[in-house]
Write a structure and sequence with these properties.
Blueprint (H helix, E strand, L loop, with lengths): L2 H23 L6 H8 L3 H7 L3 H24 L5 H18 L1 H11 L9 H14 L9 H18 L6 H16 L15
């Protein structure tokens, strides 16, 4: 096996093991020795890639931000209306958080401001709600800033209420059904590609 490929696999194993530890017991409680034990990597191999547990956390947070950026770019490139884009984007994120421990750990770290200043979710929601207003998708009298704050708080709350990641997609769908009933203009329907998510 070429050395570069082996190094990439080792780095990936460290990140995956750290993500599992952080997800299971939290960043503060996880120790370097528990990460090494879970990964099966020697301390020497670890230090070839990272200087400390904090460096692994920063790498996970950065990976989370890169994944979010790619997700946002995919959804903005679909030429959907702003509300459909927002529903689709948040639904994909919920599915990813349910299934991918690396993504979950990155979110946990970003929320604790470890390795990232902000994940940009609030700003993205505000931007798309404002665009929905400009596109005439919201009911008359709905304040886009207020709607964005409520939606953001509801989505963050849905993420934190469950002890397990399973069920996050369902909780997000519940939020969208309630929020859209209150803010979307009568007659608005999500793009056909999203109809199974509402």
């Amino acid at each position: 096996m070429p050395q570069q490929h082996r190094a990439k696999l080792t780095r990936g194993a460290i990140l995956a093991a750290a993500a599992e530890e952080f997800d299971l017991i939290g960043y503060e409680a996880a120790t370097l020795s528990s990460v090494l034990r879970r990964s099966g990597i020697t301390k020497g191999a670890f230090y070839f890639h990272f200087t400390a547990k904090e460096a692994v956390a920063e790498a996970l947070a950065q990976q989370y931000l890169l994944n979010l950026t790619a997700m946002r770019q995919r959804w903005s490139g679909r030429s959907l209306d702003p509300l459909s884009t927002l529903v689709g984007l948040t639904s994909e994120a919920a599915r990813g958080l349910e299934r991918d421990v690396v993504l979950r750990a990155g979110l946990l770290l970003a929320c604790n401001r470890i390795g990232a200043e902000s994940d940009g979710w609030y700003e993205a929601i505000c931007e798309l709600v404002l665009k929905a207003t400009e596109a005439g998708q919201l009911r008359p009298g709905v304040d886009p800033a207020e709607a964005a704050r409520v939606l953001y708080a509801a989505l963050v709350g849905a993420h934190t209420v469950g002890d397990e990641p399973e069920g996050l997609v369902d909780r997000f769908e519940e939020i969208w059904r309630v929020v859209l009933a209150g803010v979307a203009r009568d007659g608005w329907r999500a793009d056909a590609e999203l109809t199974g998510q509402l």
